């Protein structure tokens, strides 16, 4: 509902521990919402967790700015640098991760944002230059405040010019002896500070993972953390409107829990079916065409369901005898059923 993850995640972890008695070593993987001083203290040292550390923490900002010697992970798309922390009074292993793919994606957005930021900054500078100041000191302070607010830029030319205008606002040559109002304005040009831009660019694709299990290797930490995306994709699938689950409205909490349990069981079966098909495709070196007719070995079951959408059971009457047959079956569909096993194939025979 509308409850904050920062408060509900810890309680969820505790509920899981109460209801699931597991002998194995269990890691609770969560996003950065769980990472706070109070939450880490509340979880203690016996509950093992892995999470992403918020980039807003000063300690993380300092780590992102470190000129660290990165080592390659087992998955060569990632590099790492490991260190330790005692944030929240709990000893932790922190791993600075750099993702090549994430960096390439963010570089495109970064360049576009620099262009937008430059255009907006020039507009702001023009407004600053049009401002009239009562004295030279006011103009200088305004320039200092402005450049502090636009840290990616620096002045290449800055001067203060004393001007005068007619007090009544009229234009044209002032009359003889007419008293004029004096004011000061800025003359300035700017350029992008390449050092700052380069430093920010170097941090793209980097994030910090933390765990209170100091024995875990960086490869394991990254692998466990990435595994939560599988869960998120599963629940995204369940909430998809094409399955109409999102259109079910329940008021009683017990019924919501019951429906959630059914949804998770359905997702469990769906995941097993998808895993089985992908495994068989690799073992037999077979392929299934995807949405763009490209042969793949990792189709989603949702796409496979779509391939079966035209299959129908029909009744054929011949000389008053009724025969039930399956229509619109194709070789591709029979191949999928062969891979899924005889139990699945029997439904269509």
Structural account:
- The chain is of the alpha+beta class.
- Helices cover 45% and strands 22% of the residues.
- The protein is built from twelve helices and twelve strands.
- The strands form four sheets. It has a six-stranded mixed sheet with strand order 1-2-8-5-4-3, sandwiched between helices. Strands 6-7 form a two-stranded antiparallel sheet. Strands 9-10 form a two-stranded antiparallel ribbon.
- Strand 4 and strand 5 form a beta hairpin.
- Helix 8 (228-238) crosses helix 9 (253-283).
- The chain is elongated.
- The protein starts with a helix and ends with a helix.
- The mean pLDDT is 88.
Q: Provide the low-confidence segments as ranges.
A: none
Q: What's the overall geometry?
A: elongated
Number of helices: 12
The main sheet comes to:
6 strands, mixed
What is the N-to-C succession of helices and strands?
HEHEHEEEHHEEHEHHHEEHEEHH
């Amino acid at each position: 509902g509308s409850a904050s993850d920062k408060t509900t995640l810890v309680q969820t972890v505790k509920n899981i521990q109460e209801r699931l008695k597991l002998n194995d070593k269990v890691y609770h993987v969560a996003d950065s919402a769980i990472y706070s001083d109070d939450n880490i203290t509340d979880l203690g040292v016996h509950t093992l967790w892995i999470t992403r550390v918020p980039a807003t923490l000063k300690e993380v900002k300092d780590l992102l700015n470190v000129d660290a010697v990165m080592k390659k992970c087992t998955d060569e798309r990632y590099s790492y640098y490991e260190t330790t922390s005692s944030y929240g009074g709990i000893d932790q292993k922190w791993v600075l991760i750099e993702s090549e793919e994430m960096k390439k994606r963010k570089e495109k957005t970064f360049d576009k944002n620099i262009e937008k930021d430059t255009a907006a900054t020039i507009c702001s500078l023009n407004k600053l230059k049009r401002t009239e100041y009562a004295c030279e000191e006011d103009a200088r302070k305004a320039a200092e405040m402005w450049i502090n607010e636009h840290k990616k830029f620096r002045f290449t030319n800055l001067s203060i010019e004393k001007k005068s205008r007619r007090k009544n606002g009229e234009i044209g040559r002032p009359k003889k002896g007419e008293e004029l109002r004096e004011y000061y304005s800025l003359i300035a040009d700017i350029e992008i500070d390449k050092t700052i831009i380069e430093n920010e660019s170097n941090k793209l694709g980097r994030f910090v993972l933390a765990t209170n299990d100091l024995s875990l290797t960086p490869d394991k930490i990254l692998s466990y953390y990435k595994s939560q995306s599988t869960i998120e994709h599963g629940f995204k699938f369940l909430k998809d409107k094409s399955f109409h689950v999102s259109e079910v409205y329940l008021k009683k909490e017990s019924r919501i829990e019951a429906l959630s349990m059914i949804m998770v069981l359905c997702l469990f079966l769906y995941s097993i079916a998808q895993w089985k098909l992908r495994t068989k495709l690799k073992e037999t070196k077979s392929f299934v065409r995807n949405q763009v007719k490209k042969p793949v070995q990792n189709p989603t079951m949702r796409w496979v369901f779509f391939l079966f959408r035209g299959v129908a059971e029909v009744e054929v009457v011949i000389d008053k005898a009724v025969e039930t047959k399956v229509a619109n079956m194709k070789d591709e569909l029979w191949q999928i059923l062969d891979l899924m096993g005889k139990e699945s194939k029997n439904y269509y025979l």
